[in-house]
Each structure stands twice: as C-alpha cells, then as structure tokens.
What does this fold into?
Amino acid sequence: MTILGLMIMLVIVTKLVSGMAEGRPRQMHTTGERLAFPPTGTPHPMNPSGRGHHGMTQPPYGYMRTPYGLPTDVPLSDASRHAIDSDITRFGIELRELDFDVVGYELTEDARGDYTRALDAYENAKLSLRGARSDSEATHITRLLEDGRHCVARVRARALGRPLPERRPPCFFDPAHGPSVSDVEWAPPGGAVRPVPACAVDAARIELGAAPQIRMVNDGRGPVPYWEDRNHAAWARGYYGGWMNDPSMRRMTHGALMIGGFSLLMGMLDD
It folds into this structure.
C-alpha cells in the first residue's frame, strides 16, 4: 500500500472514532430525557395516588429525578422563602409576648426546658434559612417552627397552672396561627362542609358565623389561599407532613375533590 493510501485510511479511521465518541453522550442524554419524571412529580388531579400506568410511584412535588433515576431536590422557591421569613419574624414576636405573659411566674424545670426548645427552634430556623437552597430545607425549617410553637403553648400552660395542650396539627387556615385547638365544620367556596383543624381565634370566628382568617398568597394571578399555590408546597409540607395520619387531617384531605387542591399541593397521600 502506498503512503497516500495509508494517509487516507488514517483519516477515515480517525473520523469514525471521533464520531462514535461524540454520539455516545447524545444518545445517553436523549435516553435520560425519555426516562426522567416530570420536574414536579405532582400527582395529577385525576390520579391523586401519583401512581403511573405500570404501578410505579412518582416522586412527590419538590423532587425531580436525574436521567439515572436518582432523586434531586429542586431549588427553594421564592414563595416558600418569603413565607418562611415572614413566619420566623412572627414567631420571634410570639416569643417576646411569651416573656411578658410569664413574667412574675416561677417556671418549673419542665417549663424552662420547653422554653429552651422554643428559643432553639427560633434560632435554628433563622440560621437554616440563611443557607437554604432547596425545598427539603424549607420543609425542615417549618417543622422547626411547628415544634417551637407547640413548646410555647406548653410553657404558657405550665406557667399558668393549666393542663398541657394536646399535640395537634397547626391551624389549617394559616399554620402560623399555631397549633389547632379543635376541629370545626367549614366549607370552602363552592365546596362541601368538612372538619378542619382550627386555632382558637378561627374556631371562635366560625362559631359566630364569621369567616376564618385564611392565609392568602400571590400565585402570579392574584391573591389565593396558600393551599392553591404549589410554590408553597415545601413550606406547607413541613407544617402538616407529620400529621397526615392524624384523623382530622385525613378526613380533610382524603378523596378526589379535597379542599381546593390541598392534597395535591402536599403530594403526601399514600392512597
């Protein structure tokens, strides 16, 4: 074979090897896109269990999957960050009010322990928000706030010599209202009446025929109840995620219609 022939063969082989190397990543990427779940992984309203046609469970909202099937936490939404920041500020005010409520009362060791837990929840929530980048961190922070508010209620009860409050889900109308005290019968606009957990103030308002103080958020179209905006899902999940087996929460969220999409926003029904 001549030198010219050898050079031609070398050029052909080089191009073939280069083409194969470039083609592999593109093929893997294309395959990954076909296999990946939708970014939100939120169950469809007509399929609240979140199960696919082959019985596979899709990831809850707040998670997406890489082309290799590994869960990857999605970035923290601005809506959740703003809601958490507002709740931390509000909780700080509640702690200052607690100082005035118990001044002059001798706190037992148990009461001081609850007080310390409430203060730790506040400080840890502030610190966690500074570095929060993902939805799972938002859920962790609101769990801290939910626990801190329960501790505040325990401190006040111990100081005043009252029975310790029952551990209950946060108020449905706004989790920043603190722990609920009872279930009340309430119907969303155009919806059926059902029991929901309510704080003392909202329970009294409903008893008197007034509207509860629902937390409204802006979903880009205007003010809506927080449970209708899925950008607040991670924020709300921290407050209510641990209560999905509580009878009041299951009665509220179970079924196809639910309350304005609350269960869809939560993405936590086990069906």
In short: Residues 3-35 form the longest helix (33 residues). Residues 87 and 176 are 6 Å apart (CA to CA).
